[in-house]
Specification:
Residues 1-22 form the signal peptide. Keywords: Signal. By secondary structure, the chain is α+β, with helices and mostly antiparallel strands. It has one domain (5-52, 70-198): Sandwich (Immunoglobulin-like). Helix content is 13%, strand content 32%. The protein is built from two helices and twelve strands. The chain has helices spanning 5-26, 121-124, and strands at 28-30, 45-49, 73-77, 81-91, 95-104, 110-111, 134-137, 142-145, 162-163, 168-176, 184-188, 195-198. The longest helix is centred in the first third of the chain and has 22 residues, at 5-26.
């Protein structure tokens, strides 16, 4: 299993500038409807978001990578998988990087939902990933999808098809950035509860 986090995160900054311009035209859809309209089963679990104004101030990026000490939201699924969102940061080039930690809170092997990889044939060719994760801007009524590079690969953590007992790994995903006036968005992992996160 390979998360490809370190190398991919660096490579993303090179590819994302060009990809963001193209993806921004196609990655936004109407996000104003209910989740039930997406045809997904009812989502079991718990999601909690940090109270507005209580998140830590933005940290300067550096060689050590994103700050993992802040918690914007915690999303717990019924299968024992838990996602902790640490940051949602606007980057140069017009995209938004979301960093988090994926945890298996059980003492058994858990397979990650295949729906997390998305339904597009192009991204399914890349194997297990978080390409199915979306952001929803309820103010502008738009849905944002994970960016793709010029070859169609999703700009997110890949290669995660299962989690060992009590295992934790760092994950990330990059999206087109919502307008500067938007301060928070909903993040949606398929089959998991929705959580609201603050943008910095």
């Amino acid at each position: 299993m390979s998360t490809q986090y370190g190398a991919t995160a660096r490579a993303v900054r090179v590819a994302a500038t060009a990809a963001a311009l193209a993806a921004l035209l196609t990655a936004c859809g109407d996000g104003g409807g209910d989740d039930a309209k997406d045809g997904e089963p009812e989502k079991a679990g718990v999601a909690s978001s940090a109270p507005a104004g209580q998140s830590a101030p933005p940290q300067e990026s550096g060689p050590s990578g994103p700050d993992m000490s802040t918690t914007l939201a915690t999303i717990s699924g019924s299968n024992g998988l838990q996602i902790v969102i640490h940051s949602a940061v606007r980057e140069e080039g017009g995209f938004l990087t979301v960093n988090g930690t994926l945890k298996n809170t059980t003492d058994k092997l858990v397979v990650t939902p295949p729906q997390w990889s998305g339904q597009e044939i192009q991204v399914q060719k890349t194997g297990p990933s978080l390409a199915g994760v979306t952001l929803v801007d309820k103010v502008e009524k738009k849905r944002y999808y994970v960016l793709r590079d010029t070859e169609g690969y999703p700009l997110t953590t890949t290669g995660v098809n299962s989690m060992q007992p009590n295992q934790s790994i760092s994950v990330f995903a990059q999206f087109p950035a919502p307008p500067a006036t938007v301060g928070q968005v909903d993040i949606q992992f398929p089959l998991m509860p929705t959580a609201t996160i603050e943008i910095s």
